[in-house]
């Protein structure tokens, strides 16, 4: 036998063997010619961040992320072809938007504000009320919600299948040109997991404290300090935990906006009296870019937010977070921050803006 | 010659593939004859009552209260045999969160088989891990128990309300590992009289602890909410730590397997 022929023969046998392995694990009914496997993509946790959570059911690949990026900006996933995920999650606004209440197709208003997607891969509860616990599960909610994108995912899949562009992209990412709902959700999740924001002035401060101005240093001190009566503190860190400056896992807070609730928040999901009026604490990374603030966008400025926490917390609101009504700063239990202290905290919050994140060309709408 | 060498190489390769194809998906753990498991269960109670968040209780001192949150670390678990020999669980950090039922029970794995007569654990996190920076698992900073920067972890976090408290709110964030306000405490609540934990390859005993919230406010130090309703480390937290060391945890019963 000629050597080259022998090589071919061995190679075929090797492929047969590998297919046998694959077949043993998961029968592959797809009759399409096998493509090369997609290229695995490994994310790196920035210094000080928790480990990248493993997603064994949806490992990141370059092809999957590229597809997810295209889908994220794909308006055909909405009922009338006018809205994509990117409509309410805009890169220039750290993947939130500038509306008090999110706007869906036909200009309809959601009852809540868009949340930033920065560092969403570390979140275990998604949405203001934790209605979803994984990105693969979450994306279906806004896609199908009548006041958001208002189209069944099945219809979206049918539209994508009829295009000439998407079937080959799905084939590259998931091995089959037959588009499935699961693979749409997986690709969207993959793209969103790459949205890591860790390039702010605050991040530089951690290795080089001299980058902060005196106001920023003082604002950070207030942010992370529990008041004792002799030390002033603004208690922010209880709910906005570094390094993500987001709420802790599986934890929801009533921050004292209202005496009576028009939106039950977490309580609407669990039905538990103790969860009524509680919401997820959103990330403060890029907070200067994501006004208006709160789940219903009631505050237009960070100054109004600070005024709320300092002076206007509804202390008798059911399930009020105890850290907001028990401050040794003032006999009333309120934080009562001075004008200077508020200014310093806002100066610190502005250091959480990450211009590399909002300008990263890998996150923008792909050029067709 | 060349053909023969390649043939044997091919044979080896195919054999390798065949072996792989039979083992690649075989994820059954092979039971190790000299290793077993031990389950630890933590039931939070208020005296003789079960703890329900939001429900009204009265402390031993007569103060009314409700809880909205109760979390604590159980770490550095050690098992001791009658002859004094010890096994320490590696990477032994567990966070019990009352509102997440699944966290109230966990399993010690790969425990050497044998008869154990004592379980010791730490309430809190050892000083080394307090200053190791961002970590994973139970020590993940986003678990609602990290103070960040120099102060490390909160070991026990209790929040709620009390009409006796100055502003109606209870905030007990107990932690701190530096002298003189170190709140790390190790305890060895005794097994029921005559009980031995028989860990076997085919048998996993379960130890059922009761953690009594009332004992946080009584014991060596009487805590009245009118006097103390807000502590995050420091001397007041030490008082609470001495209470949790003195009798918050007891073994209620043991399931043999």
From TrEMBL, chain A:
The keyword Oxidoreductase applies. Signal peptide: none annotated. GO terms for molecular function: cytochrome-c peroxidase activity; electron transfer activity; heme binding; metal ion binding. Residues 31-58 are annotated as: Disordered. Residues 214-353 form the Cytochrome c domain. Heme c 2 binds at residues 236, 239-240. This is Cytochrome c domain-containing protein. The lineage of its organism: Bacteria, Pseudomonadati, Bacteroidota, Cytophagia, Cytophagales.
UniProtKB/TrEMBL annotation, chain B:
Residues 1-23 form the signal peptide. It comes from the Bacteria. InterPro entries: MbnP-like_dom (IPR046863). Residues 36-229 form the Copper-binding protein MbnP-like domain. Keywords: Signal. This is Copper-binding protein MbnP-like domain-containing protein. It comes from Solirubrum puertoriconensis.
């Amino acid at each position: 036998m000629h050597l080259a022929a022998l090589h071919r023969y061995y190679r075929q046998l090797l492929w047969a063997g590998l297919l046998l392995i694959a077949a043993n694990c998961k029968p592959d009914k797809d009759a399409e010619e096998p493509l090369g496997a997609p290229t695995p993509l490994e994310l790196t946790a920035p210094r000080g961040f928790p480990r990248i959570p493993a997603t064994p059911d949806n490992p990141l690949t370059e092809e999957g992320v590229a597809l997810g990026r295209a889908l994220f900006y794909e308006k055909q996933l909405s009922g009338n072809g006018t809205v994509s995920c990117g409509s309410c999650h805009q890169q220039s606004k750290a993947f939130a938007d500038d509306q008090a209440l999110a706007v869906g197709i036909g200009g309809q208003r959601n009852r809540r504000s868009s949340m930033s997607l920065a560092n969403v891969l570390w979140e275990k509860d998604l949405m203001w009320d934790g209605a979803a616990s994984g990105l693969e599960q979450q994306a279906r909610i806004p896609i199908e919600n009548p006041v958001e994108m208002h189209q069944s995912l099945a219809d979206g899949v049918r539209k994508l299948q009829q295009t000439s562009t998407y079937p080959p992209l799905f084939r590259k990412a998931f091995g089959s040109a037959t588009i499935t709902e699961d693979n749409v959700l997986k690709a969207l999740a993959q793209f969103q997991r790459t949205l890591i924001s860790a390039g702010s002035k605050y991040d530089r401060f951690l290795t080089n404290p001299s980058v902060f101005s005196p106001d920023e240093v003082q604002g950070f001190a207030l942010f992370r300090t529990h008041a004792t009566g002799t030390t002033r503190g603004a208690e922010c860190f209880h709910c906005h935990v570094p390094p993500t400056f987001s709420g802790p896992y599986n934890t929801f807070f009533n921050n004292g906006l209202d005496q009576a609730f028009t939106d039950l928040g977490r309580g609407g999901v669990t039905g538990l009296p103790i969860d009524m009026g509680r919401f997820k604490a959103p990330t403060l990374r890029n907070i200067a870019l994501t006004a208006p603030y709160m789940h219903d966008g009631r505050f237009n400025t960070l100054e109004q937010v600070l005024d709320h926490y300092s002076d206007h917390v509804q202390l008798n609101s059911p399930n009020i977070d105890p850290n907001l009504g028990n401050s040794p700063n003032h006999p009333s239990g309120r934080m009562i921050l001075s004008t200077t202290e508020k200014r310093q905290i806002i100066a610190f919050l502005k250091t959480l803006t990450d211009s590399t994140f909002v300008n990263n060309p890998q996150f923008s709408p792909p050029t067709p | 010659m060349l053909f023969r060498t390649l043939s044997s190489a091919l044979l080896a390769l195919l054999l390798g593939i065949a072996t792989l194809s039979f083992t690649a998906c075989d994820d059954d753990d092979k039971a190790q004859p000299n290793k077993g498991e031990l389950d630890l269960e933590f039931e939070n109670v208020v005296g003789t009552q079960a703890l329900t968040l939001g429900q009204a209780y009265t402390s031993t001192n007569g103060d009314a209260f409700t809880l909205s949150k109760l979390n604590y670390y159980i770490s550095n678990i050690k098992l001791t045999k009658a002859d004094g020999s010890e096994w320490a669980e590696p990477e032994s950090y567990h966070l019990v969160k009352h509102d997440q039922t699944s966290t109230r029970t966990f399993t010690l794995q790969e425990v050497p088989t044998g008869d154990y007569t004592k379980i010791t654990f730490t309430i809190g996190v050892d000083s080394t891990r307090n200053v190791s920076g961002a970590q994973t698992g139970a020590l993940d900073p986003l678990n609602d128990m990290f103070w960040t920067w120099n102060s490390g972890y909160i070991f026990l976090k209790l929040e709620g309300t009390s009409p006796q408290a100055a502003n109606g709110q209870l905030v007990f964030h107990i932690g701190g590992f530096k002298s003189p306000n170190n709140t790390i405490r190790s305890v060895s609540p005794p097994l029921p009289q005559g009980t031995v934990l028989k860990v076997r390859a085919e048998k996993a005993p379960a130890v059922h602890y009761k953690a009594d919230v009332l004992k946080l406010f009584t014991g060596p130090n009487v805590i009245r909410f009118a006097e103390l309703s807000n502590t995050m480390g420091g001397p007041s937290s030490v008082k609470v730590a001495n209470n949790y060391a003195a009798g918050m945890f007891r073994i209620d019963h043991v399931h043999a397997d």
